[in-house]
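Morning F.,

Quick status update on the modeling queue. The single chain you submitted on Monday has been processed. Sequence for confirmation:
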Amino acid sequence: MSSQPAVGPTSHSFMSQRLKLHYAAWGDPANPPMLLLHGGRDHCRSWDWAAARLCDRYRIIAPDLRGHGDSAWSPDGDYSLMAYLYDLAQLIHQLKLAPLSIIAHSLGGNIALRYSGLFPENVSRLVAIEGMGPSPAMIARREETPVASRWRAWIEEKRQAAGRTPRRYRDLDEALARMKSENSYLTDDQARHLTVHGISQNEDGTYSWKFDNYLRVWPPLDLTPAQVADLWSSIACPTLLCYGEKSWASNPEKDGRARHFKAARTVSFPDAGHWLHHDRFEMFMETVEGFLA
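Structure tokens below.
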């Protein structure tokens, strides 16, 4: 990957559920649309390098999910997948982007896969980077805990989040060190770029991450695994499922989830963790460009 970030995008906003949400855009609006969705506690500018490679052929739209980046925080701390899914549907509807291609990472991948199952006619190509959520084994362990216990834990976590203030870093270098500790595969240039666009300076001169602390509190209930699999099986477009061989995420070819897709191919990336699109950028982009072609 080049040490230089992409040419800066233009900045825009749209409204969803009374929230003002931000998105970045690259490329000619006349080109076919492509949406880039980041993961949890990330931001839209993590796609700068990918956008630079693709914006000569596509109109690139990269939103900041609610509670992330330069998008508004949810007043009631609602960061359920239903809320994210509605935001995505609104963005695509308001900008008249369908049919479009989507590349999405982690949380963004989970949202994109569900949207593509709900609106299969709207998505022409889909790349999901470790976006299928918890593995079957993780879900089985979680369901060993009674529902009431999960609800009580959620209430307590929400209460604690209400009293938690964002961590403050005395300078950019301290925040940069934290970023690098999260992903040892990042180059210095990558880590600095992600940090600069992921923090805000406080009035006292310190820095804090832009994301809302309530993001750490995951809702206690969701669709059942069978319902999620039903959405996956409704996806009509060619789909690429990408996994890092050194990631914590479970490979769907090995755990059986890939069987739910009509037209999906799973690709593993060696020497890559959860952020494989950063860890193995050139390999990832060559794979994606071949898939899109």
